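Summary for the steering committee. One of the milestones for this cycle was to obtain a three-dimensional model of the protein with manganese (II) ion bound, which we needed before selecting residues for the alanine scan. The sequence and ligand used are listed below.
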Amino acid sequence: MPAKVQVPARIGHTDEELAFIREMGVRYLNLNVMPADTTYETLAREQERLAHFDLEISDLACPPLQKNPSIILGRADRDEQIQQFQDFVRLSARLGVKIVSVAWQPNGIFRTGRAACPHTRGGVSAYADLEEIESRPIANDRVYPSEEMWDTFLYFLERMLPVCESCGVRMALHPNDPPVPSLGGVASLIYRSADYDRAFALANQSSALGMKLCVGCWLEGGDRFGDLMEDIRRYCQADKILVVHFRNVSSKLPRFEETLCEDGYANMYAIMKQFVRCGFQGYFSIDHAFAGHPSMGGMLGAFAYPTGFLKGLLWSAEEELHQPHDQVQQK
Ligand SMILES: [Mn+2]
């Protein structure tokens, strides 16, 4: 089975937007839903509508659950929040969606700002300066050390894995971004590939815990994160990679800009070939496009070109390595 391409989406895209996605040759959506929409009726209706455009939901994310401060920081209401996460997993299973997103980032991604930068051709993109980020005050009530984050993660796994396993849903764990030991006074769970190894070991290698391999995070960290090519090989072999965030940056930390795939420091074609060579069968997604232009399709418009570029790299890699393509199904 060839690898597939997805775009991020939300509920309630217009018919024109869904037609636009279909015309990009994309069939899969990473659907972000807010808690009010996490009912079977709402999402089944959305699936039915998407089906008219030959689109389907490849994975679901509920942002307030995905990066939940109560669960991650072990606050008093975490059991209630974990229960909601369990319900979300059961709902995904009922809809036939086999992947949900999670990231141990209670304060989200840290960036210094968004601007037209030297490597972005005038595009407004996110950039990070670690010196600025590390000079900020702590983001929560106190400092949260590393072992405490591993404890809350284990607490979460013990309650989530049985539910995921019983209904066949896998959680895709994204690294902490930027990948440094601590952000805003909270120790990062995943900022090196060795941390993924620890997380998978903690889950007893259950298939219910997989990864969102964010190429952007690996490139931001460089060798300090891990050996990207070797990590792609071994995590493909272990069937841990559910989704790939395909993104390039201008340089490693301490300062980087998020660039077009062809403009960053990494050779994204070499990286794509490694995924194809290793038999990756999951989903590729462009991660963080430039800010869109409102009259040019906004966010979807901004994703169109880089998604096309990604598809071109995937097609070329498959061609060069004599692998099949994910093409239009004959009806
Ligand atoms: Mn990412």
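Key point for the committee: The pocket of manganese (II) ion is lined by residues 174, 214, 216, 245, 287 (CB under 6 Å).
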